[in-house]
TrEMBL record:
It comes from Solitalea koreensis. PANTHER family: CELL SURFACE PROTEIN (PTHR34819:SF3), LARGE CYSTEINE-RICH PERIPLASMIC PROTEIN OMCB (PTHR34819). Pfam families: CHU_C, DUF11. The chain crosses the membrane at residues 20-37. InterPro entries: Chlamydia_OmcB, DUF11_rpt, Ig-like_fold, OmcB-like_DUF11, T9SS_type_B. This is Conserved repeat domain-containing protein/gliding motility-associated C-terminal domain-containing protein/fimbrial isopeptide formation D2 domain-containing protein. The lineage of its organism: Bacteria, Pseudomonadati, Bacteroidota, Sphingobacteriia, Sphingobacteriales. Keywords: Membrane, Transmembrane, Transmembrane helix. NCBIfam families: B_ant_repeat (TIGR01451), Bac_Flav_CTERM (TIGR04131). Residues 75-185, 197-308, 320-434 form the DUF11 domain.
Length: 525
């Protein structure tokens, strides 16, 4: 505070302003009272006042102009951005610092000074102009002289060394006066964590399977660091369509409880990984995905990779339906009535629905009838087709069709039964069954000539060898037996008999057929 004797001197232009106001006041008085005074005197006062006022205004303007003039100046500015907002210990990231000059003059010897916080250390830098010097936490960018409208860039790479939240400030200096004193920039906030970044990936080796099939899931746990992930474990709840079979682990132990699979991995160092292979069985049809989640002792700043969902898997229903056809007799004689049994079985794993069986009978057979424990049986004589359908079989269940027929022709009997259902069957090798039999009979000649020419010299009965037991009796016209033989071998030549007509009785039998008797006559020439 000034005392009266030390009062600050009044600026010169204030003094002139005060005299100007006094003169103006005098002139006004003269003008007001001019009519009462000598006109010439008044005019002289007016002229002198005008001259004095002009002189005062001119002198004051020169003073003000001298006061407002300044030396050369420049408006330099700085901006700062950062490449990330969150990071972990040991991770590198970049600051981008831009320095410009808005003029109006060249800015001399510009410096950018950036004092790094305790959380980060200098790693490297790239500049568009100038040079970088580093002294501990202080980074100095020497840009030199900056022309008007110049804009330069510094990319500053740092590494995190301490957890926490921090910002970073850049300051500018120049030898040229700056008309805008706001020469600093503060970066956005960065959060540094000191946790491990643990993640999991889940894959599957098949995207579609059949009911009852097994397939595998692969779990891979990886630690991106920077710290060791401690007390790591994985939880994988299997869907209801699956049943756990086994697990193979690279490290750790596992447990399974009500389809909840827990893999205790343990500690996973930075950059390391662990794997588990889960073998499962498809027990219910459906479409589903499956997720696994990895946990560690401390919070993970990157949660997106702590859960992994496998690709979609489809489980299809299927049943192994088979058919087997067999005759109840090993030897079938002409005119025999016998049975075929057609057995249909489902070996699973799911129920077989809307089963259909088809069996086309040979022309050598005559259809008599059929019966079964379930389903509907139809006989279509024009196509000689037996159709048996409209029944279901559970896993492991079987049902039998009993088909009664009669052999009406001698020769080979070939019958094929086939089966199908509305459920997918991946084993088609057992969906058909073929039964081949021979209908045996006797072809008995009505003449032979025992003349020693080796042509038709004996009584040859075709088919008699197929019978387990046979008897041949030959009689003359008076009913007297002239030849008898058990297990006849087609070797009788009738040489002891006179040419003529004789009568025969042939009896044949097998273990599985009834005895048959054939009678007729034969001419011996």
């Amino acid at each position: 505070m000034y005392t009266r004797s030390q009062r600050s001197p009044i600026p010169e232009y204030y003094t002139y302003t005060r005299w100007l106001l006094v003169l103006i006041f005098v002139v006004l008085i003269v003008i007001c009272f001019g009519s009462f005074a000598n006109a010439k005197a008044v005019e002289n006062v007016r002229s002198n006042a005008t001259f004095l006022m002009s002189s005062l205004f001119a002198h004051r303007s020169s003073i003000l102009f001298a006061k407002s003039s300044k030396p050369d100046s420049a408006d330099i500015y700085v901006s700062k951005s950062v490449s990330i907002s969150t990071t972990v210990l040991g991770q590198k990231f970049d600051y981008t610092i831009k320095v410009g000059n808005k003029g109006p003059s060249v800015s001399k010897q510009v410096l950018m000074i950036d004092t790094l916080p305790d959380n980060i250390d200098y790693q490297s830098s790239v500049v568009s102009v100038g040079a970088i010097t580093v002294n501990g936490k202080i980074v100095t960018w020497e840009l030199g002289d900056m022309n008007v409208a110049a804009l330069e860039t510094l990319t500053l790479t740092v590494v995190t060394v301490k957890k926490g939240t921090f910002r970073n400030k850049a300051n500018l200096k120049s030898q040229t006066p700056d008309c805008n004193k706001c020469n600093q920039a503060i970066s956005p906030q960065v959060q540094c964590y000191d946790f491990a970044d643990i993640g999991i990936q889940k894959t599957v080796n098949k995207d579609s399977v059949l009911l009852g099939d097994t397939f595998e899931y692969k779990l891979k746990v990886s630690n991106k660091g920077p710290l060791t992930a401690q007390s790591t474990y994985v939880i994988d709840t299997l869907p209801k369509q699956l049943e756990f079979v086994s697990a193979s682990l690279s490290v750790g132990t596992f447990g399974i409880n009500d389809n909840n699979f827990k893999w205790t991995v343990g500690d996973v160092p930075n950059g390391q990984s662990a794997e588990a292979i889960l073998k499962v069985k498809a027990v219910h049809p459906g479409v589903f995905t499956n997720s696994a989640i990895v946990y560690e002792q401390s919070s993970d700043p990157v949660l997106e990779d702590t859960i992994s969902t496998s690709p979609t898997v489809i489980i299809y229903e299927n049943a192994d339906v088979s058919v087997f056809k067999v005759a109840n007799q090993s030897v079938i004689a002409l005119n025999d009535e016998f049975y075929y049994t057609v057995t249909v079985k489902n070996s699973g794993p799911t129920s077989a629905k809307m089963i259909k069986v088809a069996d086309t009978l040979s022309e050598s057979l005559e259809y008599i009838g059929a019966e079964a424990g379930s389903g509907i049986i139809n006989w279509e004589p024009n196509q000689r087709l037996i159709s048996w359908d409209s029944f279901d079989l559970s896993n492991g269940e079987e049902v039998v069709l009993k088909l009664k027929v009669k052999a009406i022709k001698i020769g080979e009997l070939k019958n094929i039964a086939s089966v199908k259902s509305s459920v997918t069957d991946n084993n088609l090798s057992n969906n058909t069954s073929e039964c081949i039999k021979n209908v045996i009979g006797l072809r008995i000649p009505n003449v032979f000539s025992p003349n020693g020419d080796d042509i038709n010299d004996t009584f040859v009965i075709d088919g008699i060898e197929a019978w387990h037991h046979n008897e041949l009796t030959v009689m003359n016209r008076w009913g007297n037996n002239v030849f008898y033989k058990e297990n006849y071998k087609n070797d009788w030549n009738g040489s002891s008999l006179l040419p003529g007509t004789y009568f025969y009785v042939i009896t044949v039998s097998n273990e599985t057929t009834q005895q048959q008797v054939f009678t007729g006559w034969v001419l011996i020439k």
